[in-house]
Design a protein that fits this description.
Blueprint: H1 8-31, H2 38-45, H3 50-56, H4 59-70, H5 72-85, H6 92-109, H7 111-122, H8 126-135, H9 137-149, H10 157-178, H11 190-208
Helix pairs in contact: 1-2, 1-3, 1-4, 1-7, 4-8, 5-6, 5-9, 6-10, 6-11
């Protein structure tokens, strides 16, 4: 019978790394991005601060690991290549529509990611620069497929998509930070959310069906 290899140290390392990653989210939610210090994260995790450098190299790498694990577009990109390759007969419109509708739902419910995006637009950061580059991988995967479908049409889907993605971010953040309506639409209600979702569908439909 083969002897079992001792896994205690390996498991301890994995548990500690997960605790540190989880603690980034706790600190971010309670203190915002300015509170993401080595001391705060280690204290929240209940571990020696030196372990951040040992396991992640730096607190910046730890924070980036957390954000990439939570970011909607980074996560969506992981499954996008196979999905697009297997849906050759389907319009890319429905793939993009699904992504955007899920973005609305995910971002509206995720306080931590709202704070991450606020951080991203508030100051320059190597961490957020790396995350943004990871997000852009979705563009390099998706647009070659949509370009083929829309060939010959005078449609700038990249510009339309940019406005929709940015608009979703802003509408959610506006609602969260001001607790008010936007163009008399209340995104804290199911009706308000559905109106925005229907608008996204309408814009994409008009874009893809444009005759010019």
């Amino acid at each position: 019978m083969a002897r079992k290899t001792y896994q205690g140290e390996k498991n301890d390392k994995s548990r500690t790394m997960n605790k540190l990653i989880h603690s980034v989210g706790i600190v971010l939610e309670k203190k915002g991005y300015t509170g993401l210090t080595i001391a705060n994260i280690a204290s929240t995790a209940g571990v020696d601060r030196k372990l951040i450098s040992v396991y992640f190299g730096s607190v910046e790498n730890l924070i980036e690991t957390y954000i990439k694990g939570k970011d909607y577009w980074v996560e969506a990109t992981a499954a996008a290549e196979q999905t697009l390759a297997n849906s050759k007969d389907d319009s890319t419109r429905y793939f993009l529509e699904k992504l955007l509708l899920e973005q609305i739902h995910y971002f509206a419910l995720n306080d931590e990611m709202q704070k991450v995006v606020l951080w991203q637009i508030s100051e320059k950061s190597d961490i957020m620069s790396h995350v943004t580059q990871s997000r852009e991988k979705m563009s390099s995967l998706f647009f070659p497929y949509s370009d083929k479908e829309l060939a010959g049409k005078n449609v700038d889907l990249r510009a339309v998509s940019s406005l929709l993605v940015a608009g979703i971010y802003y509408l959610v953040l506006h609602t969260k930070m001001t607790d008010s309506t936007f163009c008399e639409i209340d995104l804290t209600t199911e009706e308000g959310m559905n109106r925005i979702k229907e608008a996204v569908k309408f814009i994409l439909k008009q874009t893809y069906e444009a005759e010019y």
